[in-house]
Sequence to fold (350 residues):
Amino acid sequence: MYIEKLKLQNFRNYKSQEIKFSKDINIFYGDNAQGKTNILEAIFLCTFGKSFRTSKEKELICLEKENLQVEVAFQKSDREGKIKILLENKKQIQVNGVKIKKLSELLGNLNLVIFTPDDIQILKNGPAERRRFLDMMIGQLRPNYVYNLNNYLKTLEQRNNYLRQINEENKSEEMLEIWDEKLAEYAQLICKYRTEFMQKLKEKIKEIHLQITNENLNIEYITECSKKENYIELLKQRRKLDIIKGYTTKGIHRDDFKVYIDEKEINTYGSQGQHRTAILSLKLAELYVIYDEIGEYPILLLDDFMSELDEKRRRNFLENIKETQVIITCTDKMNIENSKLFYVKSGEVL
Fold:
């Protein structure tokens, strides 16, 4: 799988730009704030239908312009494809010239793994970052996962609203059983997906991490929602507390996974170098899980990430991605075998 061409119109600081990529390694270099990361953001937008940098889509439109257009042409082993995104008053997404109605129709057309300097926070920050990592990976491989997750979140919001009504308007607690049943139904489905993919990651990450370092790395998924009946019972036990707080205190929206190096939790005992190496192993494991699922390597986006690695880690990393199209941003010109160089300055790619 590889991207052939990217067209940008009024996207961020690009008024009009067309970029033709190599199937191998593509390096975009230049000073900061020139538009390098915007290229990765545009590709990400065509893959997931949203930005990885902002939730305010109007920020994507070039200053003093009213709309934008992003178009990606790509090749997969069995077909070629084109994704176009138009954004004005509302967003319109086209896949191979056909306007789509649901985001699930976009997911899986392009597959990618992205590294950014902020990714180290996946391990350092709270569970929300780790759940987001899982949701992105599983969502592009199992579009039905996104459907179930959205239904869970809608049901969760409805239950939370009703909890507040019980507290403020003395509504009947019995009605909560309707929300509990629905919430547990979706939670069990989502938990099943997450457990499956965490097991796949677990198998890959141990071997990858041993290649990069001599340490043993392990991951453990933490959930209380694997069985519907158990989760419903948990919701009943927490009901009084949930009513007082006005929100649901247990569920897959609280799930987490922990990373251990030599049986010590990295969040507590890990050094900065161990965090960096662990996130590298996690992302490479994601890449290989996607390969096993679809039979071809996803596109790899590296936003100023190579500069975070020392020479040994960089060499080991490149050994692991030989058959993958890679798109790199960096400030300094990098000499890597089989690479195509692009110089970026003031929203122009040369």
About this structure: Residues 169 and 245 are 15 Å apart (CA to CA). DSSP finds ten helices and 15 strands in the chain.
